[in-house]
Amino acid sequence: MIIKSFRIEQKIIVILIIISILITSIIYFVSLATDDELSTEEKKDFIKWVDFNVTATAMEVAYRLDVESHQNDNGVTYNWIELLAYLACKNGGNFKNFKQEDLTNLLFCLENGQKMEDLTKDLKYYAYYYESYQAVLGGFVGNYSIEVTDADGNKAFEPKYGLKAFLPIAKNYSFSHYDDFGNSRSYGFKRTHLGNDLIGSIGTPVIAVESGTIEHLGWNQYGGWRIGIRSFDGKRYYYYAHLRKDHPYVNGLEEGMTVKAGDVIGYLGMTGYSIKENVNNINVPHLHFGMQLIFDESQVDSPNEIWIDVYQIIEFLKKNRSEVYLSNKDTKDYSRKYDFMEDSLTE
To answer: Per the domain annotation, does 144 fall within a domain?
Structure first.
């Protein structure tokens, strides 16, 4: 009986040891999983969505204040994105509720020595609006040099500060558009329209809005002949689609190339809605222009893409159009008339 009891106790001890090992292992792996989850959450700490509702009027007001403050040299300079982010906090991100009084009060405080960081420290969503608007508009305003011709016909570069982003339709070419972002599309599958259609004539030169790198070039059954350009800061991806049949791009354009804001990159057309390349299946000639925001590379080519309504941006950019000329009679290609250099490209 004593031997039998001893054996039972041994088995119990072994079982308890095994249970103890299992519990310890479970706790260890749960701890690892929790650490991984925390690490993943830290990696996912970036903006997931942006509703860009800033009006062209508000952009124009903030832009003028920014530029004039840099020209006047009165000791106070404004950052138009900071101004817009502040106003967004005051109107809940809806610029239809924009009040001049809010801007006037802000300018008064800044002109009297108060700092933007102090004025915004208690505004809960200021950091969100600033980062969002910086992603949208970050490459639009700054220092640049533009080619000019004097009375004797000599060319030189003149340094400037101001708007260095261009309308995607060349100067002296007409177009029309309306706010069609979010409208329904049915080709291939039911989906929403994630851009702005600029209706014009076939062959109209299409312009690079901002300097950047060509990431995509070629045929897509939805966009036809299209171009995708990524801004140098990586935050903006510009999408130009439905380009002209047979001659969609300016001669020599390739993926991986750098283009400058205001360069001719292609020609308006009506290609797309076809698996077969080089087919006109769009009813009305137009340029589909879209802007995707990228806060993290996981948002590229995924269900997490952020496309914004660019209608108001197009309205704002109408003031800055790139003039072009027929530069190659053999290929019938156009080029910009006045060269352009950004400080960021020349440093």
So the answer is: no
Contacts of 96 (CB under 8 A, 6+ apart): 53, 55
- 3-class state of residue 53 by DSSP: coil
Query: What integer pLDDT is reported at residue 92 of this predicted model?
Result: 92
Clarify whether residues 99 and 233 are in a common domain: no
Q: Is 79 exposed, middle or buried (0-12, 13-18, 19+ CB in 10 A)?
A: middle
Give the integer Cα–Cα distance in Å for 326 and 285.
21
In a domain, 186, yes or no: yes
Buried b (16+ CB within 10 A) or exposed e, 272-288: bbbeeeebbebeebbbb
pLDDT class of 5 with cuts at 50, 70, 90: very low
CA gap 91, 97 in Å, rounded:
6
- Does position 172 have pLDDT exceeding 70, yes or no? yes
Global pTM reads 0.85
Q: How far apart are CA 16 and CA 22, in angstroms?
A: 10
Structural domain span for residue 105 = 56-137
Sign of dihedral through CA atoms 49, 55, 60, 61?
A: negative
Give the DSSP letter of residue 243: B
Best CA proximity match to 164, nearest among 243, 95, 63, 242: 63
**161 Cβ contact list (under 8 Å, min separation 6):** 67, 70, 71, 141, 142, 143, 144
Residue with tokens 């790198």: 213
In tens, the pLDDT along 208-239 reads 999 999 999 999 999 999 999 999 999 999 99
